[in-house]
Amino acid sequence: MNLNDYSLWTALITPLTPGLQVDFNSLEKIVKEQDDAGNALLILGSTGEALNLDLDTRKSIVEFVINMQPKSPIMVGVGGHLLSAQLEWTRWLESMNINAYLMVTPIYAKPNDNGQITWFESLMDSVTKPVMLYNVPGRAGKDLSFSAVKKLSNHKNYWGIKEASGSANTMKKYIDASGDKPVYCGDDGLLPEFTAKGACGLISVASNTWPAETYLYVKQCLNKTFDAKMVWTNAANSLFIASNPIPAKALLCNEGRITHGTMMPPLDATDLKDLNLLVQSSNNIRTWFEDQK
Question: How far is CA 184 from CA 39, 162, 191, 239, 281, in A?
Answer without folding.
Answer: 14, 5, 9, 19, 24
